[in-house]
Amino acid sequence: MHLKTTLVLLSFVLIGAVATMSHGSRDRSRIGTPPLGNIVPNPVVHPPVVGPPVVLPPGVYIQPYDKPYFSRDELKRMAEDPNANSVRRGPPGTPDWNFGYPIQPYKPPPFAVVVDLEGPPAPGEAKLAEEAKRQLLAAKPENPGRNQSFPKWEPIGSGQGERMPLIRTSWYLQIRRVTPIPGGWRTRVLVFPVARTDDYRRVSISNFHIEVYSFKAGKLKLEAEFRNPDPSMNPAEGLRCMIFG
User: Fold this and answer.
1) Cα gap 175→131, rounded to integer Å
2) Which of 36, 65, 70, 81 would give a disulfide with 74, using CB separation of 3.0 to 4.6 Å?
3) Is the pTM of this model over 0.85?
4) Angle at Cα 149 formed by Cα 146 and Cα 152, nearest 5°?
5) Are strands 202-205 and 112-115 parallel, antiparallel or unpaired?
6) Which residues contact 31 (CB under 8 A, 6 or more apart)?
């Protein structure tokens, strides 16, 4: 009798233990895995996807819309590239490849002479001016005296911070007056330097030198020269100019 009672009691204890374990398992499945204290699992880091390098056709450069300017080194490389032909807004295969603008390698400008007479021409002056233009273009005179008007090849104010030397590439002559003389003519011209920056940007210079030439018996002769009389044009300060690009 006692043995039977003892077995019945053990059965109830075992059933209760199993029920308690089953209830605990259901609770754990509901609340999830207990936290691991201060241990934080390392996030999974995927390596960046690296595609093949972009291969551009010869002479093509990329300038995205968020890049408004090329660096000075890039400008130099483009200007010195004999195949330079265009700038694109995006690499091949993208919609921005269809947008951009043409470019050309740098070519030094030629020696230039223009007729820009002061006021209305005197009778026969226009014809003499055209003859003077032909003779000056043929001779392309180089005058060492121009150095007195252009002793410092820097823009005015460029000494404040970055120096930007200018490189003369040619001359630009304006014929302002032509008068007849026995056996020929005499002309007064303004001589402007044509220059660029070291990264090949175009420069328009206001400083000029004054030269007087005569032409007689088939010979062109420099008769006189002067500095710009404008006192605000102090050549020792540098050159008054505009830089484009």
Assistant:
1) 11
2) 70
3) no
4) 105
5) unpaired
6) none
